[in-house]
Design brief:
single chain; 437 residues; alpha/beta; Rossmann fold; 3 domains; 5-stranded parallel beta sheet; 37% helix; globular
C-alpha cells in the first residue's frame, strides 16, 4: 500500500475524541505521524514546540477563538485544514481563508476529501480513494476477508465488498458564522480519546455512530460483549444493515414472531431448500414474503439490534471499512433518527441521572452534528429545546417540560450525544442569549 504522507507530521486539534480518532486513522494509514490536541490551550503548546507540517482544526474551540487559532497556525508556518459544522457556506469559507485556512470541509465530510486536502496542503499527490486492505478509521484493524454464505450463517459479520465509496454530495448552504460562544464544560468522557482496541467503557455506541456519520464512514462496526456479537453496517454514515448471533435477533426468529411463517413450516422449507439458501430467499420462494414486507422487517431488525447495544458499557468494538454486502435489502436509516429514537426507548432513568447531572446547564452547540430539521422531534421536545439556552439547569428543564422526567432526560441526553446541545457554564437569566426559537 502506498504511503503518500510518509514522513509528514500532522497536528489534529479538536474537542471531539471520536472524530479525531476517525481523522487520525484516515491519515495515519497513509503514512502520516499524528499528534492530537484536545483543546485550544494544548494546540498552542503543540504549535510552540513545533515539528509539524500541517494542522487539521475542528472549529470552533471552546477555549480559543477561531481567528486566534488560525493566526497561531500561520505564525508557526503551518497550513491549516478546517473542518466545521458551524462555519458553513461560501462566505464562511472566504472569511476562514482570509484568516489563514487553506481548506474548509463542512460536516459531514468525506474522509477521502480530508486526506486529499491534507496531501495538497503538505505538497504531495492526492492519495487514491481505493486502498488495498486499508486499516479501519476507528481502531486500525484490517478489513475482514470475504465470507461465503456458510460463514455468514455462523457469524453476524457479513462479507464486505471493496468497491470505492461514491463521491461526497455537494455541501448544503447554512450558517455563515457560529452561534455566540459560551464557555463549554468538558466532561472526562469527552476528554478521553477512544482506546486503540475500542473499549466501550471509554465510549458508547451512540457516540460512535455520530462520529461515523460526521466522518461519512462506510463499513462495519462490530460490537462484542462476552459471547454476544453484533454488527452494524453503515454507508456514508447512515445505517444500512445489522445482525446478531442471538437467535431472537436473527431474521428467521423475527419472521416467526411477526407471523410471517410458523417455526415448523420454516424448518420444513429449509429441509427442502438448496444448501446455503437464506431465510428471506426461502420465504420469498414459498410466496410468504414480499420485497416490501422484507424491507419492513429488516428495517425493524436494524433498529432493534442497534438499540440493544446502546446501554453497553462493557465490551469492545472494531470498525472495518468496506462496501456493504451487494445482496442486502436497499435501505438507509438516518443515523440521527436512530440515535434519537434509540435513546428515547432504551435509556434508563438511573443512568440518565448519572450522565446528565441535575445542576448541569445546556445551550445550543455552535457545531451540531445534525441539523434540527433532519431530526423528527415531538412537539413537547421542540418546546423543551427552546428552553435550553444556558440559563436553566437540567433540573429546571425537567420541571418545565411537559414530558415525564425519564423522557425529558432521555431527549436532552440524545441532544448532547447528537451535539445539538452542549454543557456550558451557567448563564445569568438577564444575559441575552441566542437559542432555538
Amino acid at each position: 500500500m502506498t504511503a503518500p504522507l510518509s514522513g509528514k507530521r500532522l497536528l489534529l486539534v479538536g474537542e471531539d475524541p471520536e472524530l479525531l480518532g476517525l481523522v487520525e486513522g484516515a491519515t495515519s494509514r497513509l503514512g502520516a505521524e499524528v499528534g492530537r490536541a484536545g483543546s485550544g490551550r494544548e494546540a498552542l503548546e503543540a504549535l510552540a514546540r513545533g515539528g509539524h507540517q500541517l494542522a487539521v482544526l475542528d472549529l470552533p474551540l471552546s477555549d480559543l477563538g477561531t481567528p486566534e487559532a488560525l493566526v497561531a497556525c500561520a505564525r508557526a508556518g503551518l497550513p491549516a485544514v478546517v473542518v466545521s459544522g458551524a462555519y458553513r457556506g461560501p462566505k464562511a469559507a472566504a472569511e476562514l481563508r482570509r484568516l489563514g485556512a487553506r481548506t474548509l470541509l463542512e460536516k459531514p465530510f468525506s474522509l477521502d476529501a480530508l486526506a486529499g486536502a491534507v496531501a495538497e496542503g503538505v505538497g504531495v499527490g492526492a492519495p487514491s480513494p481505493v486502498e488495498e486492505e486499508a486499516p479501519d478509521e476507528v481502531t486500525g484493524a484490517r478489513p475482514l476477508p470475504g465470507l461465503d454464505d456458510a460463514a455468514i450463517a455462523a457469524s453476524p459479520i457479513p462479507a464486505l465488498d471493496d468497491q470505492p465509496v461514491p463521491a461526497a454530495p455537494a455541501p448544503r448552504a447554512g450558517l455563515a458564522a457560529p452561534l455566540p460562544e459560551l464557555p463549554r464544560v468538558r466532561s472526562p468522557e469527552a476528554d478521553a480519546p477512544p482506546p486503540a482496541r475500542g473499549d466501550l467503557a471509554r465510549s458508547s455506541v451512540p457516540r460512535l455512530l455520530v462520529a461515523l456519520h460526521v466522518g461519512q464512514a462506510t463499513g462495519a462496526l462490530s460490537l462484542t460483549r462476552g459471547p454476544v456479537r453484533k454488527i452494524v453496517v453503515v454507508e456514508r454514515g447512515n445505517l444500512v444493515y445489522a445482525a446478531s448471533n442471538l437467535a431472537p435477533e436473527r431474521f428467521a426468529g423475527i419472521c416467526v414472531r411477526r407471523g410471517v411463517v410458523e417455526a415448523e413450516r420454516l424448518e420444513a422449507l429449509r429441509r427442502e431448500a438448496a444448501p446455503g439458501a437464506r431465510t428471506a430467499e426461502i420465504l420469498a420462494g414459498a410466496g410468504l414474503l414480499t420485497p416490501e414486507r422484507r424491507a419492513e422487517l429488516v428495517t425493524g431488525q436494524v433498529r432493534a439490534v442497534t438499540w440493544s447495544t446502546f446501554e453497553w458499557r462493557e465490551g469492545t468494538y472494531a470498525f472495518q471499512p468496506g462496501r456493504p454486502p451487494a445482496g442486502r435489502v436497499p435501505l438507509a436509516l438516518d443515523a440521527g433518527d436512530v440515535v434519537l429514537e434509540g435513546l428515547r426507548r432504551t435509556a434508563s432513568l438511573g443512568r440518565l441521572r448519572e450522565e446528565l447531572p441535575a445542576d448541569a446547564h445546556l445551550a445550543p452547540s455552535p457545531a451540531p452534528a445534525f441539523e434540527l430539521y433532519d431530526l423528527r422531534l415531538a412537539p413537547e421536545e421542540a418546546r423543551l429545546l427552546t428552553l435550553a439556552d444556558g440559563t436553566k439547569s437540567v433540573a429546571d428543564l425537567t420541571r418545565l417540560s411537559e414530558l415525564p422526567e425519564r423522557d425529558a432526560l432521555a431527549f436532552l441526553q440524545a441532544c448532547r450525544v447528537l451535539r445539538v446541545l452542549d454543557e456550558v457554564e451557567r448563564v445569568l437569566a438577564s444575559t441575552r442569549r441566542m437559542g432555538f426559537m
